[in-house]
Amino acid sequence: MIARKGDWVRIHNIVLEPDKRASHVPDDTKKCPLEMWVKGYLVNEEACIDDRVTVRTYIGREIEGTLIEVNPSYQHTFGDYIPELSYIGNQLRAILGGEDSE
Questions:
Q1: Which pTM value belongs to this model?
Q2: What is the distance between the alpha carbons of residues 85 and 91, in angstroms, rounded to a whole number?
Q3: Fewer Cβ atoms within 10 A, N terminus or C terminus of the chain?
Q4: CB under 8 Å to 39, separation ≥6 — which residues?
Q5: What span, in angstroms and rounded, lies between the C-alpha atoms of 94 and 100?
Q6: Element (H, E) at 36
Q7: What confidence tens digit (pLDDT) does each residue in 68-88 have?
């Protein structure tokens, strides 16, 4: 997909390679690079996925990275339904004497 100047895009960048991580971070963290994903408006005239580009964020910062998505959407959730939490909720209401206690 081709992105054009001013399109809303997401970029990715490696901020620190594993060997550059601070010595006091946990061992499993030291093994991973510090990565960043940023959304912003494309500054380059045109770009394709995997091109190195510059974006201007909503607050005006210009950041370079690899273009990974054009018109990114928000795709967060509160996770899968966990039946145990419903049971715990009912049990807690019963203990506290709530209206829905069974």
A1: 0.72
A2: 10
A3: C
A4: 8, 9, 10, 11, 55, 57, 58, 72
A5: 7
A6: strand 34-42
A7: 999 999 888 889 999 898 889
